[in-house]
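Running this now, will post back.
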Amino acid sequence: MLVDSAPSADGPPSSSASRWRPAADRRDTARRVLTSAQTPDSRVTPSTDIPAWLAERAAAGSFEVTPIPFAAMRGWHFEGGTGNLRHASGRFFSVEGLHVRGSRAPEGGWRQPIIVQPEVGLLGIVAREIDGVLHFLMQTKMEPGNVNTLQISPTVQATRSNFTGVHRGRGIRFLDLFLAPGRCRVLVDVLQSEQADWFLAKRNRNMVVEVAPDEELDTGEDFRWLTLGQIRALLTTDNLVNMDARSIVACLPTLGGGGERGAGDGFTAALLRSFTDPAARSLRTDEEIGSWFNGIRALEELVQRLVPLDSVDGDGWEHTPEEIAHGSGRHFRVLAADVTATSREVSSWSQPLIQPRHPGLLALLVKRVDGVLHALVQARVDVGHLNVAELAPTVHCRPAEHTGPDAVPHPPYLDLVLHAPAARLRYDAVQSEEGGRFFHAQNRYTIVEVPEDFDEVAAARGTTGGDYAWVTFAQLTELLAHGNYINVELRTLIACAHALY
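Update: finished.
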């Protein structure tokens, strides 16, 4: 058991905590974030101890996920009259049908299954200063859809149904640090979206709260304090840092962090300036980016209508006792699973899961322009978006769905990424998507640096005269102070870019 000076999860706030302002200065937080990012080790959790900690926590628990027929699920049923898949409590989430029409959709639109989860979940990381450096309290957490059972996760990761006790399980540790106003100093607090091709308007509250350095917190064996530098290193390993942790890390402010001073030349210097330098010249001003993006949201059409799940059969979806899947073998399938996990608040339950048919490719093209690294992002319209479009990676697709006789045409820049020489791959790893709803959902995430002669003006035009824009990483992280601008896949790539300097 590890005991550090941070607040008790159950006791009253200390006098030092109560003197803090409720929200931290963003520029000061950026400076402290950069210091933590450039600290590769920690006295309280040496990096050499992390593999043994992960192995010990995996061996300490019992985990089993078994696919079952829908009829064998406990507490779930297909609703009469609609076929919608619901929980007996009426909470958690449901799987329903969605009919979508839009300017980028086929004539008449299409129908598909979609997860409907109107409640806002909480994804939170507790931070504290140790030896003058910000540390973040991370846990090992099992999710039923994880390809490798345990992944490094935020301090708290819970739906509203979980933290209001609908599951009738054990309480969630450290939850009160996020829900009690004034208990901690807030470093990050923003509502962000999740996968818009599988969720309808799903949002989670992404938070980082800081406890006073002179308080004590009994962390237990599932939790460890890590610097951002240690988390950066872990992001280079496949399927280790979970999606929710990556989302929160991306939301940490960086502008004004100070990394631009003395950074030198080269890729690392250009990346640091892109993240931190307030004076770094960008190809487009914040106002120009905002106007361009608002124009797309205003002019694109996206009409969403919930329909009975039974009705999606007319668009090629087939419902069997074991799955709901598209007859083409593309897209995804809905399956049922029975889960046992000794380390969770509830030790046994059943639930539906979505499994993609093919892995995805999420790629970000980057280029040095006047010594500042720029990223090429696209304005992407997905079926479940709350506000029509969000900024997404340059390439956002499943390559296997772009082959064969009925394949969708290749999206722009896919071939460039698939054939990029190894020397141009600045980041390349496989990362898992959220294991609480998705089964073995893995995507390849890559950052590709294009050569100096790459035409950034032509690239920004895309295929429809303006789908793409070059932005700095500072512009992206500043947009992340607001919700529903940057999709979860691009947030992962922003988090992974931290691993490169």
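Residues 1-19 have pLDDT under 50 and may be disordered. More later if anyone needs it.
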